[in-house]
């Protein structure tokens, strides 16, 4: 009887997929109403139209499905089919991607960073495939800035400041530990309230994230030197991608690529506008000395030494360095 039920359930699934198409449920942290969210909605609409309603994407915006690790867990158990992931969670799936986010690599040169992501994309995608994910495109999250309630205009003055680190993020926790700072691991949604209550005094994000997450209301200073470059990716589980008919896959890939480019152009402008907004609000921009910048290069080498073969492979590092 159980065998018959399983057969019937499988046949029903196959029938529904072929007759009515597939709906892909995707979790996103980007809030509703942002340029990013609007572009994703247009992507979903065009995919639905160009595939004759055989492929539908339902985005859950604003972290309504939880933090990124929650979204990944829901994908693993089949409650969701995909997510747009950044940093730590992206690294949980494919640690090699994190070489792009190593500290003190690109400084203000976001174009160079994005160019290297493009060159390394085939390599990264092979690793995603091995880990049973399909990548529909890399997003530019942007240059990451350090924000604080304390005047941290030197590496020395950052000592003792309680800095948020994304819970479970090996890269950030290793960087903070190497620099001998105070790390306070927390989920992303807890950062704003923790800045309010004094649990943490500092955090880090691209300017767009600082504004979107309202951290700008709780900080007084920004270090005017990007510590890293952050990327994201639109990932679907292999099981979900397999439900998309072969004749529709190229259409989905092409439309996704178009809107990923649109999001990246929008994010560049939004990050630039967000930096200007931070300045207009009276948040002070601090400069590091040349000595501290040079010391940062040495700390980068230490971080690499601790994470190579642990978070990312020697092969990924070699590819990054050769492109640099």
Automatic annotation (TrEMBL):
Residues spanning the signal sequence: 1-21
Q: What InterPro entries does the record tag this protein with? A: DctP_fam, TRAP_DctP_sf
GO BP of this protein: transmembrane transport
Say yes or no: keyword Nuclease present: no
What keywords are assigned to this protein?
A: Signal, Transport
Q: Name one Pfam family in it.
A: DctP
Task: Respond yes or no to whether keyword Ligase is given for this record.
Answer: no
Specify the superkingdom.
Answer: Bacteria
Record-stated family: Belongs to the bacterial solute-binding protein 7 family.
PANTHER family for this protein: C4-DICARBOXYLATE-BINDING PROTEIN DCTB, PTHR33376
Q: What is this protein called?
A: ABC transporter periplasmic solute-binding protein
């Amino acid at each position: 009887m159980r065998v018959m039920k399983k057969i019937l359930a499988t046949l029903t699934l196959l029938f529904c997929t072929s007759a009515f198409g597939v709906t892909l449920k995707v979790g996103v942290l980007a809030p509703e109403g942002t340029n990013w969210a609007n572009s994703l909605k247009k992507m979903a609409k065009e995919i639905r139209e160009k595939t004759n309603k055989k492929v539908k994407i339902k985005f859950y915006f604003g972290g309504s499905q939880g933090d990124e690790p929650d979204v990944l867990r829901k994908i693993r158990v089949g409650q969701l089919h995909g997510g747009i992931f950044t940093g730590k969670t992206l690294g949980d799936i494919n640690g090699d991607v994190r070489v792009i986010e190593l500290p003190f690599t690109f400084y203000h040169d976001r174009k160079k960073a994005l160019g290297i992501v493009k060159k390394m994309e085939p390599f990264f995608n092979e690793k995603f495939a091995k880990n049973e994910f399909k990548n529909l495109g890399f997003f530019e999250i942007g240059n990451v800035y350090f924000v604080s309630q304390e005047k941290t205009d030197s590496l020395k003055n950052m000592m003792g400041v309680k800095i948020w680190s994304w819970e479970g993020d090996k890269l950030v926790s290793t960087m903070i530990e190497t620099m001998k700072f105070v790390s306070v691991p927390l989920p992303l949604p807890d950062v704003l309230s923790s800045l309010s209550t004094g649990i943490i005094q500092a955090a880090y994000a691209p300017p767009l994230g600082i504004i979107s997450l309202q951290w700008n209301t709780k900080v007084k200073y920004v270090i005017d030197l990007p510590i890293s470059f952050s990327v994201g990716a639109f990932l679907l589980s292999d099981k979900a991608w397999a439900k998309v008919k072969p004749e529709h896959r190229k259409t989905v890939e092409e439309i996704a690529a178009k809107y990923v480019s649109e999001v990246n152009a929008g994010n560049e402008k939004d990050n630039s506008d967000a930096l200007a907004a931070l300045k207009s609000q009276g948040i002070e921009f601090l400069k590091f000395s040349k000595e501290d910048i040079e010391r940062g290069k040495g700390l980068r080498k230490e971080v690499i030494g601790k994470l190579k073969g642990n978070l990312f492979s020697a092969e990924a590092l070699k590819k990054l360095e050769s492109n640099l």
